[in-house]
Amino acid sequence: MTLKIHIDDSAAPYEQVRAQISEQARSGVLPVGYRLPTVRGLAESLGLAANTVAKAYRALESDGVIETRGRNGTFVAAAGSAAERELAAAAQTYVERARRLGLTQADALAAVQDALRAAYSG
């Protein structure tokens, strides 16, 4: 997990943490079940107060992005319907395969668009 906090940004640090973790979870960079660092550990690595990270974690939990399992830690939660989760997993597998094949993002997207047109046009 890579987070970057920009002090000169107009967004509050907790909001930057929340937004970046949310985006990484949504995009699959942080897969479902990924164990997040402790509040204290993440705060130290980012140079933030623990309360700042705790506030971001509370917001993420409220949004259903993460779940806290007591002393076991905090994890990326499964979000959306089963169909949406399956689709996200398939998309992640496709992206990994396209990268291994050396395709550009544009080539990979064009292939998906062609397949969608073929499947939904008739």
TrEMBL record:
Lineage, top ranks: Bacteria, Bacillati, Actinomycetota, Actinomycetes, Kitasatosporales
Organism of origin: Streptomyces sp. R11
Entry keyword set: DNA-binding, Transcription, Transcription regulation
Pfam families for the chain: GntR
GO terms for MF: DNA binding; DNA-binding transcription factor activity
PANTHER family: HTH-TYPE TRANSCRIPTIONAL REPRESSOR YTRA
Domain HTH gntR-type: 11-79
Domain of life: Bacteria
Protein's name according to its UniProt entry: GntR family transcriptional regulator
